[in-house]
Amino acid sequence: ATPAATMVGTTIGAQNGVLFKGGDILERARNVDTVVFDKTGTLTEGEMELTDVVGFNADGQPVTDGGDTAADGGQVTTRDRLSEEDVLRLAATAESGSEHPLARAIIEGAEERGIDVTDPDDFENVPGHGIRATVSESEVLVGNRKLLRDSGIDPSPAEETMERLENEGKTAMLVAYEGDLVGVVADADTVKESATEAVIALQERGVDVMMITGDNERTARAVAEQVGIDPENVRAEVLPEDKSDAIEAIQSEARQAMMVGDGVNDAPALAVAHVGCAIGSGTDVAIEAADVTLMRDDPYDVVKAIRISDATLEKIK
Ligand code: ADP
Ligand code: MG
């Protein structure tokens, strides 16, 4: 594009809250044939809320059949039958060492339910899988199936409960205490209002729309369905360090991918993508790695970015 056209494009972008880092990006955006959205914080608000707490007894049977989080009073506190309140207290205390949105929701949910949340004695992040903490000299795990399996704890008694919650698009997490599976907690997020509209507009343009997430397959597919992304185009359970490999794999099929993300985890993927697009309220690391920043946190602005690129290039013909 001519310098004048580039300047017009950059200005129109800025007026629409779409910040292009350079003229070459304005030219590149129109060639994008695949848009890969991160799930949490990009397609969804990223504001998790605790929705469910389920306690299990020694036989791995749910203490109640779940649903709402009405704690049962906490009168039963033996090792083999933790109440929902005990499960939530343990999970929230263990998560106090974490800044993860999933953790913040568990802690806030516990506090709202009148539970006193203290700090764990010891805490360790297991990226992409959960956390491991020491609470009152006992080990507490909160996280996904692999986290428990890696510690020799069988998550399968919770499978039915996990699948029910995941099919609702929730992120369900297992809670283990002193080597036993004791419960499940779940957080839910809401899909951004314009996410579906953005996906449809991109698909109408002939762009393949994909989703990438560290979250589990079932939750990811439930969210994909809500926004109109083909379940085949979902890449779930992708570890933070593997997101950029996933983008490279897509691009090795001669595709020109735009990655749209907000997290620290997304930064390497934003950097390797043909066009990296950061959500403005996202982390600084993501914004620095990206080529475009969407100041309004609106997924539909991805469509605008591509249209501005079209218009800029048309001016030079
Ligand atoms: P995302 O891509 O959605 O940000 P992450 O890679 O951070 O996902 O986490 C992947 C999965 O690991 C989560 O869906 C959850 O099951 C588990 N996990 C990560 N952090 C935590 C945590 N602090 N507490 C419980 N589970 C966690
Ligand atoms: Mg995210």
TrEMBL record:
Domain of life: Archaea
Compartments, record wording: Endomembrane system
Entry's family note: Belongs to the cation transport ATPase (P-type) (TC 3.A.3) family. Type IB subfamily.
Protein name per the record: Heavy metal translocating P-type ATPase
Organism of provenance: Natrinema soli
